[in-house]
Amino acid sequence: MSKTKIFFDTEFTGLHQGTTLISIGLIAETGETFYAELTDYDKTQINDWLKENVINKLTHQVMLNNSIEGTKDVRCKCDTAMLKVYLTEWLKQFEAVEMWSDCLSYDWVLFNQIWGHAFNIPENVYYIPFDICTVFEMIGINPDVSREKFGCGEVYAEMPKHNALWDARVIKMCYEKLFGVV
Q1: What is the number of structural domains in the chain?
Q2: What's the confidence (pLDDT) of residue 182?
Q3: Contacts of 59 (CB under 8 A, 6+ apart)
Q4: 3-class SS at 41?
Q5: CB 90 within 8 A of CB 74
Q6: Most exposed among 72, 75, 88, 108, judged by the fewest C-beta atoms under 10 Å?
Q7: Rounded Cα distance, 89 and 83, in Å
Q8: Any long-range contacts for 10-13 (C-beta under 8 Å, 24+ apart)?
């Protein structure tokens, strides 16, 4: 069974053990997207950098209805409990899923926390995530390379860095460039 590659990114309240999810963006290799902004992140952990670079870039979109069945593209603003419902439903459109991120330590932990822990993630999601920065290192590209410049070229400066959906798109573009996917 072939797995659909899904590229994802998260924005969160800091590089520490008690961090909380602010937003999550996913894009499938086939183009379907999911973007959620959380309403229940720990606002006491927001510092000036996060406010300027993450919070101010949220789109503040609100889901217009509670049903996403059959929806290929989802945008929502919700708490973690509803995120679990919406994301589980969105992931059902794929028979099997392989997750890709960039420097995914926090991303993967936060992804798993949506369902309580790793043993509760949807059954169609492969339990081993893949990291684009490891691919860079293995093929001899500095893993600290600008992802935007590598994946997008010079147009990257105009794009909304630190928006989870945009960052997921950049990861997808880097993957496609690295593996010659058109």
Answers
A1: 1
A2: 59
A3: 35, 37, 75, 163
A4: coil
A5: yes
A6: 72
A7: 10
A8: 10/106, 10/107, 10/110, 10/111, 10/164, 11/54, 11/162, 11/163, 11/164, 12/41, 12/106, 12/110, 13/41, 13/42, 13/45, 13/46, 13/50
Task: Give the type of residue at 53.
Answer: N
14-15-19-22 Cα dihedral, nearest 10 degrees: 50
* Residue 90 lies in domain: 4-179
pTM: 0.91
> What is the C-alpha to C-alpha distance for residues 57 and 9, in angstroms, rounded to an integer?
15
* Burial of 144 (C-beta count, 10 Å sphere; 0-12/13-18/19+): exposed
- CATH number for 10: 3.30.420.10
Amino acid at 43: K
Closest CA to 33 of 4, 8, 58, 62: 8
- pLDDT at residue 56, as a whole number: 87
> Are the CB atoms for 31 and 97 separated by under 8 Å?
no
DSSP bridge partners of 11 = 23
User: 7-23: per-residue pLDDT in tens?
Assistant: 999 999 998 899 999 99
For 87, half-sphere exposure in the C-beta direction (CA atoms, 13 angstrom radius) is 29
